[in-house]
Specification:
199 residues, alpha/beta, 8-stranded mixed β-sheet, globular, MPN, EMC8/9
């Protein structure tokens, strides 16, 4: 039986806002699920934006993941997936850094998904989810998830309307990733203020 993957409106919005804030560079982040999530149905409840400069720089990634893991333990969450947008407009396959990070996540969360952002479908008035989801399978292969096994909650139309509203207000400017946080540690990588605007 194929596992299903659900993305909350909060997680979806933060992914799209991250891609919009830095359209000229690659961006990445991790996806969080509730602790004890089923391996047959994964609901990503939040997304934590990682980087827009140093996507694969090991020391920065390690520090960021340690902070996220510490937060997850106190919040009853787990790192259960990864997202990536390429700086190349037409690129829709996972790069080697994305694959390696997601493979590492899959060691702890076997049904980890890698969410790829389709830059060609990004627009201020969103009409497509602009996402493709692949999953790491036995044998080291990446398999694209069928559209019926991937949903944005509460539903795609509601999520598209919501994120279009956030984009029209230019709220992507308020999003903080770890590159921003490392430049100024007073900036909140949890994006609590932005989260209250999305909820």
């Amino acid at each position: 039986m194929a596992s299903s993957c659900e993305l909350s409106k909060l997680a979806y919005s933060k992914i799209i806002l991250h891609a919009f804030k830095y359209p000229h560079t690659s961006v990445n982040g991790v996806l969080l699920a509730n602790e004890g999530s089923s391996n047959h149905s994964v609901k990503y409840v939040d997304a934590i934006p990682l980087f827009h400069h140093n996507l694969g720089l090991a020391p920065m990634l390690e520090v960021a993941l340690m902070q996220i893991d510490s937060y997850c333990r106190t919040a009853g969450l787990v790192i259960a997936g990864y997202y990536h947008a390429s700086e190349a407009l037409a690129e829709m396959s996972p790069d080697i850094v994305s694959q390696r990070i997601c493979e590492k996540i899959a060691e702890y969360f076997p049904n980890a998904c890698l969410v790829l952002i389709n830059n060609r479908q990004l627009a201020k008035q969103m009409t497509h989810t602009s996402l493709s989801v692949v999953q790491y399978c036995d044998g080291g292969k990446w398999k694209v998830k069928d559209k019926e096994n991937f949903k944005i909650l509460p539903n795609n139309d509601s999520a598209l309307d919501s994120v279009s509203n956030l984009l029209s207000k230019k709220l992507y400017k308020k999003l903080v990733d770890f590159d921003d946080h490392f430049d100024d540690i007073s900036q909140d990588w949890l994006n609590v203020t932005l989260k209250s605007m999305i909820d």
